[in-house]
Amino acid sequence: MNVLDERREELEKHEFMMGVPRGRLAVTLDVLTDALVLVGQHGVYCQSSRQSGKPAMDIQVIVKSIVDAKDLIASVMAELKRPAQPGC
Predict the structure, then answer these.
(1) Is residue 57 within 8 Å of residue 48, measured between CB atoms?
(2) Which domain range does residue 24 map to?
(3) Which end of the chain has fewer CB atoms < 10 Å from its terminal CB, N or C?
């Protein structure tokens, strides 16, 4: 089963509210948020030996990558929301 089938209800709801491109990006943000939560939970148990109280370095890199991806998707959503400029 692919992601479009697995998340059909979420996709339909968001696509109806925001249009297909922004709706799919919104669901993508939800998927990344779920991944971020799971990695964060893992980071609680997988502590860095060099930095007390911080997750292991690989967990920190994964978290940063997911956060960066979310920021990029949010910027695309904002760009899609903006009305088209005449003459461009």
Answers:
(1) yes
(2) 8-80
(3) C
Contact in structure between 4 and 11 (CB atoms under 8 Å):
yes
- Could you tell me if residue 88 is inside a domain? no
In the chain, % of residues over pLDDT 70: 94
Please indicate, yes or no, if residue 63 is contained in any of the structural domains. yes
pLDDT tens for each residue of 14-24: 999 999 999 99
Asked if residue 1 belongs to a domain, the reply is no
Q: What is the pLDDT of residue 86?
A: 65
Instruction: State pTM to two decimals.
Output: 0.82
